Amino acid sequence: MVWKPHVTVAAIIERDNRFLLVEEETPHGLQLNQPAGHFEQNEDLIAAVKREVNEETAWQFEPAELISVQLWRRNPELPTFLRVCFSGACHSHNPDQPLDTGIVTTHWLTRDEIAAQQHRLRSPLVLISVDEYLSGQRYPLSLLKSFLDLDHE
Q: CB-based contacts of 36: which residues, under 8 Å, 6+ apart?
């Protein structure tokens, strides 16, 4: 069997000292997460995070920086995730757009409000990512290189 981690993207979106989170249905009940999801075939990481934010929040997202690349596994029996975390800004909200399956609503929460809900966070990476962002951890998007469909002749 080939081992493959799940590659995901996530967005840290801050406005007026509040962070955009989604409330989503999970096997463990309603949980809070950054707008996030799986990287899909034929897209680069920036396209993936833009798509996921739009599908889950109905906002258009413009990534500005990388916050971190996180390798996470809850325990050896569960999948491993390689999560690429971006920061950036949202614009052009469409309140009439239906949200992705499983997303109940969105919330703008302060860091302290997120910390107070630790028991409801989808993973510890939710608060870790916010704290990384607040500590000023930033990397240029130019670190990402995509070489899709290159002709090697």
A: 8, 9, 10, 11, 52, 56, 83
List, for residues 12-32, the tens digit of each pLDDT value: 999 999 999 999 999 999 999
pTM flag (> 0.85):
yes
Is residue 137, in this structure, part of any structural domain at all? yes
Give the domain extent around 136.
6-98+107-142
Collect all residues with Cβ–Cβ distance below 8 Å to 29 and sequence separation of at least 6: none
Q: Tokens 């989604």: give the residue.
A: 22
Is residue 24 assigned to a domain?
Answer: yes
Neighbours of 49 (CB within 10 A): 27
User: Please, what is the end-to-end C-alpha distance for the chain in angstroms?
Assistant: 33
**CATH number for 136:** 3.90.79.10
